[in-house]
Amino acid sequence: MSWDAIATFAMAFVTLVGLNLGAIRWVLSAQAKELHMQLATIKRDGSEFSHGVERELLKLKADLPVEYVRREDWIRFSNTLEAKLDALRAELRAEILALRERLYDRGQSSEEEKTI
Question: How far from chain centre, in Å, is Cα 95?
Answer without folding.
Answer: 53
